[in-house]
Amino acid sequence: MLMVSVPLEHADAVRRAMGDAGAGILGDYSHCSFSYSGTGRFVPGESAHPAYGKPGELASVAEERIEMLCSRAKLASIIAAMKRVHPYEKPAFHYFPVEIE
Question: pLDDT exceeding 90 applies to what percent of the chain?
Fold first, then answer.
């Protein structure tokens, strides 16, 4: 399972890029995902080039957390596809193995 948080207005592009790279395969279905909304908060460092907010100031962004199944074999290409369209310099993402019956 690969999970990534992304500003709401970029969620469809990130979800599509991940699916096109091979995430979200479940049986005869592709591009399967689950999402929920929340608020991301961060303070960009002085040398950062943030997509949102200003260096040294607390920023809050409406985000969507996207969860998609992915195989380990395709993980690197899925992460690369996600990073190509994600607006953040360093998007936070998590991967953990899931068994599908």
Answer: 95
Residues 8-16: contacts with CB under 8 Å, at least 24 apart: 8/37, 8/62, 8/63, 8/64, 10/85, 10/86, 10/87, 11/35, 11/64, 11/66, 13/85, 14/66, 14/82, 14/85, 14/86, 15/66, 15/68
Confidence of residue 100 (pLDDT cuts 50, 70, 90): confident
- 2-95 maps to which CATH number? 3.30.70.120
**Domain residue ranges in the chain:** 2-95
